[in-house]
Amino acid sequence: MADELENWYRLTLLVDAAGGDHAAAILWEHEVGGVEMYDAETYAEDQSIPPVPDGTNRLIAYIEQDSPEQAEQSRDAIVASLTESGLPPISVQFGSFTDTSWQTAWKDFFKPTVMSKRAIVGPPWEEFEAPEGGTKIVIEPGMAFGTGTHETTQLCGEKIDRLLGEADSPQSLLDVGCGSAILSMIAARLGAAPVFGVDNDAHAVEVAKENLEVNQLGGAIDLSTRELSTFDETFDIVVANILTPILISLRDDLIARVRPGGTLLLSGITDVQVDSIREAFVGSELRELDLAQKGEWVCFELQRVSA
């Protein structure tokens, strides 16, 4: 038993809060044993971990390797992936770890989350019921961004629910940067059809397909790594919950995929980035209908101007 414990290492990272959930998803992609995330309002029971500075998240990952050298290689690979993704750690701490209580304790961070009036999302180890007249989605935390706990996912979920509820006929939907496919699944369960999800991370798409099978939605959603520019069709609803610089870089392709009179939902945006998004998107092709906010995060609801 002692030898097994000596194979575990703890990696503690401080990252900008705006990219905390994306950073956590990258950690899962490196097949760590578990991930914990703290912000300024939470702190670890382990008092050796200091309070989290405002505007940051502290991520703790547990790594199993046969030697310190291999563990250090894993650490370096994780830091490199974060940096390449535009999420360079503010600080990095690393060392051996012999307390394995985290192996079940990390699950305490994931509870069923009400996504909207008609949708709830939760992990497979929790018992929870769908809202009356609504649906429940089961998501295994990790491996792809989107467990329902982040404000941006909730903002998008609420708007998708309302838009589908107000529609007189089934609405087509394109989920850009679909991650775990959580928004695609909510949309499909609430009547959207057809539903397409795209992500440039092939591994995330594979995990998302597993989520579809768990929720018996395998034939209801088309998931792929297709580029936006390869789509010929337009959609009633296009949702993109990704980082602001990427949204701006995809501006023309995003707008092109929205049918005239259709809706473009943009999130992954902090309140200090609102003007940048408004300047890039609102104009002759799109008009702003609403700006919803949870905490520091916002979601734009934009309408494609009819030709």
From TrEMBL:
InterPro entries tied to this protein: Ribosomal_L11_MeTrfase_PrmA (IPR050078), Ribosomal_PrmA_MeTrfase (IPR004498), SAM-dependent_MTases_sf (IPR029063)
Keywords annotated in UniProt: Cytoplasm, Methyltransferase, Ribonucleoprotein, Ribosomal protein, S-adenosyl-L-methionine, Transferase
Protein name from the UniProt record: Ribosomal protein L11 methyltransferase
Gene Ontology BP, a term: methylation
Biological role: Methylates ribosomal protein L11.
Gene3D superfamilies assigned to the protein according to its UniProt record, in alphabetical order: Vaccinia Virus protein VP39
Pfam families per the UniProt record, alphabetical: PrmA
Annotated GO CC locations: cytoplasm; ribosome
Gene that specifies this protein: prmA
Organism annotation: Bradymonas sediminis
HAMAP family named in the record: Methyltr_PrmA
Compartments it resides in: Cytoplasm
Single GO term (MF): protein-lysine N-methyltransferase activity
Family the UniProt entry places it in: Belongs to the methyltransferase superfamily. PrmA family.
